[in-house]
Structures are given as structure tokens and as C-alpha cells.
Amino acid sequence: MRRGCHRWPVWWLVWKLKLLMLLLLIPMATAVSLPSSGQLRRIWLQDHCNAGICANVEIGRNDYVILSQSPIAKQVMLTFVNSSIAKIPHLMFDTFPDLQLLRMENCSLETFEKPQFEGASNLMSLFLGHNRLKDIPKNIFLGADNLNTLHLEDNQLRTLHNHSFSALKELKELSLADNQLEQLPLGVFAGMRKLLDLNLAGNRLTGFPRGIFDRNLNLTRVNLARNRFTVFESELFKLQPRMALLDLSGNILHELTLNFSLLELIVAQGCDLRRLTVYGVVHELDLRNNSLREMPHIPQAVNVTTLDLSQNPLGNLQGNPFRRFTSLLRLNLSTTNIHELAEGLFKKQTQLKMLDISGNTIYSLKITLFDSLKQLQYFYFQQNNWNCDFLQLLMSSFVKRRDISFMEDVTAPELVDDYVDGIACWYESDKFSKKCDGDGGGSSLSNAAIELSVVRNEIKAFTEVVEKKFVKVYRMLEEMKLKL
Ligand SMILES: *[C@@H]1O[C@H](CO)[C@@H](O)[C@H](O)[C@H]1NC(C)=O
Ligand SMILES: *[C@@H]1O[C@H](CO)[C@@H](O)[C@H](O)[C@H]1NC(C)=O
Ligand SMILES: *[C@@H]1O[C@H](CO)[C@@H](O)[C@H](O)[C@H]1NC(C)=O
Ligand SMILES: *[C@@H]1O[C@H](CO)[C@@H](O)[C@H](O)[C@H]1NC(C)=O
Ligand SMILES: *[C@@H]1O[C@H](CO)[C@@H](O)[C@H](O)[C@H]1NC(C)=O
Ligand SMILES: *[C@@H]1O[C@H](CO)[C@@H](O)[C@H](O)[C@H]1NC(C)=O
Ligand SMILES: *[C@@H]1O[C@H](CO)[C@@H](O)[C@H](O)[C@H]1NC(C)=O
Ligand SMILES: *[C@@H]1O[C@H](CO)[C@@H](O)[C@H](O)[C@H]1NC(C)=O
After folding, report:
1. What percent of the chain has pLDDT over 90?
2. What is the spatial distance between Cα 132 and Cα 130, in angstroms, rounded to a whole number?
């Protein structure tokens, strides 16, 4: 029988050896040089963890901790809550050799030890967001060579090194959102050939080194929102055959030209965009809250299915701007300073399912506008200056007849003459009367109604200006506070 000589598996021996070394070395180290509260501590994790949730674990920066008397097999997931852990314990992955998912978010994590991920070859997901990490040292992830998902959002990272993420060859998802990154080294993502999802939102990036994504051919989702880009070059992604998402929201870009072979969704909210050009195929555009006074220029408009132009000062759309958007399913024109819609505007939108024209100053339309909208299921038109007679007609001859969903109004009753199915409207002849006494309901607004709509719009514009100013003042105060 050979059994006798294999009583203990190798990992057990290695484990014991490490433990022994630690026990022998640490008292020496403590005696010789540890300056502060450094100490050897036994934190039996079994006492702190229940069903994979560990609570109230305290580990200081200089503590050397032993987590268990022997390795704990088959523990696949661990989540730490209500804990303060300055560094991941040195023996974490020796103690839990089967660990696949480690959540140590919001634990005041400050630093990494070297080597930190030795033996972590089963680790697939690592969540270290909402901590106090300042640096990702070179080669720190050596050992975690099967890591798939790494979250480092909301830490205090200012820089990264070329080799911060080396060894992470299997990484698919990386979040570095809400740090203080100003620039990135050219080689930082080069080892991650399988990267799919990269989140860099909420940093201070102003640009990228040319070619930084040239090794990440499978990159499909890139979030660059809330950075400090003033120009953006889609050339960076010229090697990626198809992308699912690019988010540029909150960067002040003014003018933007994109050229992708295929991009599923571009989100560019609040970029103060005045001009946008998109070459290549893009399916969905979310351009909410920009300064567009003209339609985006998209040669391949035929491939656009969703277009959100809400909160842009487009005004009355002239010259058949949607004629090439023949595949549109969803169109949002909410709060775009529209007063009138031309009769043939939606002639080519035979597929359209959702149309939002709420928050404008429209008082009446040609009902034939809807002739082509055969597929419409959702039509939002609240918060306009509707004429009550026209609104009745719209409801009975189109909205209710076709069983189309709509949304009720929130306008205060004091300002409103009447409601039709919950939507505010005004009478033309006499703005004080609650009931229209049937004076013919002509096609032009009475002076009173025009006056009312002018006043309403002035109030709207005024509050917008005040809001903007207020934001500016608030920012200045904040800056002054920082300087003090
Ligand atoms: C963590 O702390 C919160 C708030 O004190 C408490 O409600 C929660 O039960 C704690 N969780 C665990 C697992 O101890
Ligand atoms: C982090 O934990 C603290 C208390 O330990 C809690 O007040 C805070 O809400 C948590 N933050 C996040 C982002 O979980
Ligand atoms: C980082 O890596 C890139 C290539 O991936 C190389 O060109 C560059 O010189 C490296 N920079 C440093 C500081 O090592
Ligand atoms: C990219 O994705 C495709 C399809 O999922 C896969 O076949 C290919 O191996 C991936 N390439 C790399 C470098 O991971
Ligand atoms: C868009 O990019 C492709 C491939 O990189 C290039 O061939 C094409 O000329 C570009 N189009 C424009 C209008 O710049
Ligand atoms: C709209 O975008 C501007 C930047 O152009 C931003 O300052 C503002 O906060 C955004 N407003 C909303 C409601 O998102
Ligand atoms: C773009 O639209 C054309 C015309 O409808 C269609 O033939 C093509 O397949 C579309 N391409 C993509 C990638 O959606
Ligand atoms: C259209 O845009 C407005 C303002 O951005 C938004 O509140 C509304 O929910 C959008 N409509 C739909 C149907 O998504």
C-alpha cells in the first residue's frame, strides 16, 4: 500500500509550511522593526461568516492575520460587510483555495500586499469598489490568471502603470469608474485580449494615447461618461468590428464626429453638442440635453431605430428632416421648442412605435400627420399648449380609436382651462371660461391664448436660466470651499 506516504495532500503541507513561516517570522519582524500597531492576529473567519457573508471583520494596515487553522475547501463566494479591512489578508487564497467570487466593497481597503493573489487561480470575480485604494502596483494580479470581472470603482486611483493589470489575460469586465485618473499609459490594457466591457466613467481623462485599445478587439461596451474630453476620436476604436455601447455623456464636446463600422448604442447626454456627424451604422442614439439646433448628420440614417433628441433647442423642424430615418421605432422630441409640426413630417416613419412630443408649445396639428404612423403604440403629447377642441378631435379620431397609450399631464389646475382625458388644454375664445360654448373652434389662436402660451414659455425659459445660473454659483462656492 502506497497510501501511507500520501496521508496529507501537498497543498496542506504547503499551507502548514507557510503558517509556520509566518508564525516564526512575524514575531521577529515585530521585535525588530514594525513601527506601529503591527501584530500577529488570529481572526477565525468561521466566527464572522455565515452563508458566505462575513461581517464586522477589522484588519489594520500592519496586521498579519491568520484566518483559519486549516484551509477551508469548497467556499466559493465570500462577501464582507460592515468591515474595515485595510488590506486583503495575505493568506486569503490559501485559506479559501476554491474562492471564485470575493466582494470586499466599502471596507476601507487601502493597499495591496505583495504577493497578493498567489493561489487565486480559481478567482473569477473580484469586487473592490468604494474603497481607498491609491495605486494598482505592477504585476499585483499575478496568480489571479482566471479573473473575469474586476471592479475598482470609487477608489482614489490617480495613475495606472503599464503592468498594473498584467496577468489578467481572461479579464472581460473592468470598472475603474469614479476614480481620479487623468491619463492612462499606452500598454495598460494590452494584455486583456478578451476585454468586453470597460468602464472609465467619472474620471478626469482628457484623451487617450493613440492605439491604447488596439489589442482589445472584442471590446464592445465603453463608458467614458463624466470625464474631461473636449474632443473625441472614434479612430481609437477603428479595429473593433462591432461595439454595443459608447457613452460620452457629460463631456463638453460641442462638435462630435464618429465613425464606427457598427455601433449599437451611442449615449451622449449633456455634452453641449451643437453638431453631430455619425458615419457607419449606428442603431440607437441618445442625445438628450444638448444644444442641437439642427438634426445630426447621419448618412446611414436608414439603420437608426431609436433617436432621442429631447431637451435640445431644435425648434420647428424644417425641410423634412426625418425622410431618411425609415427604420425608426422610437423618436423622442420632448422639450425641443417645437411649436408646429409640418404635415408630412412623419411620412416615412411607418415603423414608428413610440413618439414623444411632450413639453413643447404645440396647440394644434394637422390630423393627417398621423396617417403614416400605422404602428404607433405609445404617443406622449402632454405638457403642450393644446387647444381643447383640437385635443378632443385628436383623442377621438386617433389616440383612443387606435388604442394608443399616452400619459396624463401634471400642469397645475390654476393654469389650465380644462383637461381632456387628463391632458391640459386651453380654449381659444375666452381663457376664463371653463366650457367652450361652441363658437366654431377656428384654426387660429385667439390673442388671449397666444398671450397665455407666451407667458408660460417665458416662465419656462426664465426658470431654466435661473437654474443654470444657480448651478454656476453653486459650483463657484464649491470651488471656493475647496480652496479654503
Ligand atoms: C451591517 O450593518 C447594518 C447597519 O448597522 C445592519 O443593518 C446589518 O444588519 C449589518 N449586516 C450584517 C450582515 O451584520
Ligand atoms: C459603506 O459603509 C458605510 C458604513 O460602514 C455606510 O454608511 C455607507 O453607506 C456604505 N457605502 C456604500 C457605497 O455601500
Ligand atoms: C508601456 O507599454 C507600451 C507598449 O504596450 C510601450 O510602448 C511603452 O513604452 C511602455 N511604457 C512604459 C513606461 O513602460
Ligand atoms: C472575441 O470574441 C469571439 C466571439 O465571442 C471569440 O470567438 C474570440 O475568441 C474572442 N477573441 C479573443 C481575443 O478573445
Ligand atoms: C470611416 O472609417 C473607415 C475605416 O476606418 C474609412 O475607410 C472611412 O473612410 C471613414 N469614413 C469617413 C467619412 O471618415
Ligand atoms: C444638461 O447638460 C449640461 C451640460 O451641457 C449639464 O450641465 C446639465 O447638468 C444637464 N442637465 C440635466 C438635467 O441633466
Ligand atoms: C442597414 O440598413 C440596410 C438597409 O435597410 C440593411 O440592408 C442593413 O442590413 C442594415 N445594416 C445593419 C448592420 O443593421
Ligand atoms: C423623452 O425624453 C424626456 C426628456 O428627456 C423623458 O423625460 C421621457 O421619459 C422620454 N420619453 C420616453 C417615452 O422615453
Report:
1. 72
2. 7
Question: At residue 228, does pLDDT exceed 60?
Answer: yes
Read out DSSP for 365-413? --GGGGTT-TT--EEE--SS--BHHHHHHHIIIIITTTT-B-------G
Mutational test site, ligand 4, from 216, 218, 240, max ligand atoms within 8 Å of CB: 218
Q: How far apart are CA 63 and CA 65, in angstroms?
A: 6
Do the domain assignments include residue 454? no
- Ligand 1 mean position to 105 CA, how many Å? 14
Q: How far is the CA of 297 from the centre of ligand 7 (A)?
A: 17
Rounded to a whole number of angstroms, the CA Rg of the chain reads 31
Q: What is the CATH number of the domain that holds 373?
A: 3.80.10.10
**Is pLDDT of 451 > 70?**
no
Q: What is the mean pLDDT of the chain?
A: 86
User: Are 253 and 268 contacting, i.e. CB atoms less than 8 angstroms apart?
Assistant: yes
Percentage of residues of the chain with pLDDT beyond 70: 81
- How many structural domains does the chain have? 1
pLDDT digits (tens, 9 = 90+) for 318-351: 888 999 999 999 999 999 999 999 989 999 999 9
If you measure from the C-alpha of residue 457 to the centroid of ligand 6, how many angstroms do you get, rounded to a whole number? 20
Q: Which domain holds residue 260?
A: 36-445
Q: Are 324 and 303 in contact (CB under 8 A)?
A: no
Residues 426, 103: Cα–Cα separation, whole Å: 57
Q: Whose CA is nearest to atom 3 of ligand 6?
A: 270
- Whole-angstrom CA distances from 111 to 59, 160, 308, 317 are 12, 14, 43, 56
SS3 257: strand
- pLDDT tens digit sequence for 352-398: 999 999 999 999 999 999 999 999 999 999 999 999 999 999 999 99
Nearest Cα residue to atom 2 of ligand 1: 82
Taking CA 466 as the corner, what is the angle to CA 465 and CA 470, rounded to the nearest 5 degrees? 120
The β-bridge partners of 390 are: none
Within a domain: 23? no
**pLDDT at residue 17 in the model:** 57
Among 65, 21, 16, 67, which residue's Cα sits nearest to residue 39?
A: 65
Residue 385 falls inside a structural domain: yes
Q: How far is the CA of 193 from the centre of ligand 4 (A)?
A: 8
302 lines ligand 7 (CB under 6 A): yes
Residue 25 covered by a domain: no
